[in-house]
Amino acid sequence: MPEQQQWTIVATEQPPEWFIQAVKQHTPLSSGMYAAQLLWQRGIKDNQQLTAFINYKAYQPASPFEFGQEMHLAIARLQQAYNAKEKIAIWGDFDADGITATSVLWDGLGQFFTQKTQLVYYIPNRLKESHGLNNQGIDNLAKQGCKLIVTCDTGSTNLEEIIYAKQLGIDVIVTDHHTLPTERPPVAAIINPRYFSGEHQLFNLSGVAVAYKLVEVLYQTLPNIAKYPLEDLLDLVAVGLIADLVQLSGDCRYLAQLGIQRLQADFQQPPAARRRPGVGRLLELCQKNGDRPTDISFGLGPRINAVSRIQGDAGFCVELLTSRDVKRCHELAEVTELANTRRKSLQKDVQAQVAQKLTQLDLSTTSVIVLEDAQWPAGVLGLVAGQIAQETGRPTILLSTEGLGEQGSGGAGEAGEEITSLSSNSALPLARGSARSVNSVDLYQLVKDQAHLLYRFGGHPFAAGLSLLVENIPLFTAAINQQLRQSLGSTTLTPTVQADLTVTVADLGKELFLELKVLEPCGMGNPVPKLLIQNCWFENAWHRNQQDWQGKKVQYIKTEFDIRDDSGRSAFPGLWWGHYKDELPIGRCDCIAELDYNTFKKRYEIRLIAVRPSVNSALSTRNGLNLSFPLTPLILDLRNQEHSKKATANATQDSPLILEDCPTSWESLRLWLRRCLTTSRFASTLDNQQQLAIAWSKPKHQSPNQVWLTLVGIAKYLSRTNQPVTRVQLLEKIGISDQTLLVGIKALKSFGFTVKRQDNYLQITWHPSDRAENLADEAVTKFLAAVREEQFQQQYFAEVPLSTIMAIANSDNYMGTKL
């Protein structure tokens, strides 16, 4: 279970009056006080800085020639290719920064080299290849007659592959922003902003911005050739910059500001007149209009990233971003949207499974969370690891042993780093995974220090990718935990959330939104302002599954609500993504939120980040209900009674909440107790409170051995008939829990069954052997033990006294835990 979050408020220093007045010039509808406070906090403390920060026209960008000799070498090699009519390949990457960087070079270099004949591009497959160059891809390009490779968002540390390309007569120009090599590789040129000092305007450029700088110099060196203006590339630059989470300062902020303007202007055109109909269609599908950085970070970026996560091959995304064929772009946009829908569903499934595994960990003795599972799709592990790291305050590493064997490197997710190969033995079973960090823990160094246990790895301080032998996982887990414990000393890791400003509900709305908008585009180093609202409460809360663009349900939850406090009579709308309404606290509370504008609903709203009961909630009253004492659910015991079925069949809106399935843990029962409390919290009298009817019957169990044979029989049947099956269908047939089924699937695999996941279905195939009924096998033994434990728990809950259930409910409620 996630630990209690630690909330911190940014230390505030009152800005001087002259600075407040200067900010007010840019926020005419409001006092400018909040914006001034934030800007002062973030180091903007004079008029020149302020003007350049807010107005891009006052900013002086750096010349691309500041890359010095390397830029001159790159341009000279490109001019040589231009004069000799050589064939050039762009080698990109499969994340949003890499895809947009490839698109910038495809459009930019495409002004000088004929696309598809003189100019081609190559995007590695996320699920089969690693980030960076690889020999197989280089062989492919050599066969096509390529004499020059221009990398983007990758390649800096691919020393062996660069040497291999050179042996085949192919030169390499590297444009990248990742880890620098220990020595200059044998390339025609390497353009990487990490060679600059950390204070340089160009230091934080992402891959797409570096690619843009190369094209910018080519436009200047070969004038009067390009058909389209250089500025047409800026919208793609903005998408890659913001999606890659680089620090938006210096030229990064400048380019993002210009690019968002281009993005919005193009979207405002009729679909047939847009320069980028694919981008326009994506914005329509995610109900955005392109004028906000969040339209990229929550809209375009995740959709572009989803393609490689789900399909592996994201090459068509370059066509989606650059083609002017409206019909084709709309088709590709809809494929992309479908991939994102599948990504959401997979991510939610994996997150639930990870949360279940977390209950088996003692977080008080765990410094680095390392979890593995054979069913987890590698493409979403980085996203889930990031969520778990934020919730627990601990670096998190999630590993998949799905399809054991060599499957590329186990890329670094959004980290986008080249992978360092540490072993040539690829015949043994490998686990692939992604890692995410928090609390300023240098995750890359932690992983690097365990290099002797790894097959490949790569990353940066907050994100990494790795692969290792399955047999090394326990040793790796123990070693990396010991290493972090030693470096932390007495420091305790706790999940933290930080607020920038304290506001009231009455402050929320258009004026504050427009005032805070002067800080945009927000990103690393200039985060979206987090607002602390104290002593508030929620009303009219409801949740629902999100739907995709075709109206189909997606297993992804959001809660909508109204928020109030004592500052005024009006409520303010808000959203809480990925949460149920039952998770909102009872009574008065404090929350941290972001203020946003919903272009689809055309309203201002808050996006909830964190919430907790207010320190004053025990003394508060509302709607005539005294909240000085916690509520206790009224439980009706209908277990093992025939009329319980009749009560279930005749249930109405005013009937008790009815729980028919026998739980297997206190945790699952607590969810229902909590739901009952949440439904009851606005009742003015005890008579009006919602009851919970526990109406399960004593389970009739097969023996664990028979359960195993039933599972094997179903698996054989599904293999013989080639029928897909859902987990839910299997659970109903066999009568076990989801967690126990996962253990059973591992046992099936040990006997030659192959279980593959396709969308929400499982496809089971069998290669017959004489071991299928061997109940002494270790994997089967684990399954039988899991079944016995589950059956024991169900027997317990079938007969546990009602007084015990009430005591647990009262104890949890008074202790303030989440029921």
Characterise the protein shown here.
- The chain is an alpha/beta fold and 819 residues long.
- It has 25 helices and 27 strands.
- The strands form seven sheets. The protein has a six-stranded mixed β-sheet.
- Strand 26 and strand 27 form a beta hairpin.
- Helix 9 packs across helix 12 and helix 11 crosses helix 14.
- The protein is globular.
Q: What key phrases describe this protein's structure?
A:
819 residues; six-stranded mixed β-sheet; five-stranded parallel β-sheet; alpha/beta; 25 helices
Mind sketching the topology for me?
Blueprint (H helix, E strand, L loop, with lengths): L5 E4 L7 H8 L8 H9 L5 H8 L14 H16 L2 E5 L4 H14 L9 E4 L12 H9 L2 E7 L6 H9 L3 E5 L13 E3 L15 H15 L12 H10 L7 H17 L9 H9 L7 H19 L4 H7 L3 H33 L10 E5 L7 H12 L3 E5 L19 E2 L8 E7 L6 H6 L7 E5 L2 E7 L3 H16 L7 E4 L1 E3 L6 H7 L14 E17 L5 E12 L7 E6 L11 E10 L4 E11 L7 E2 L2 E2 L7 E4 L5 H7 L7 E3 L6 H15 L10 E4 L9 H18 L2 E2 L1 H8 L3 H12 L3 E6 L2 E6 L11 H22 L2 H14 L4
Parallel strand pairs: 1-13, 2-3, 2-4, 4-5, 5-6, 7-8, 14-15, 17-19, 22-24, 23-24
Antiparallel strand pairs: 8-10, 9-11, 10-12, 11-12, 15-16, 15-18, 16-17, 18-19, 20-21, 25-27, 26-27
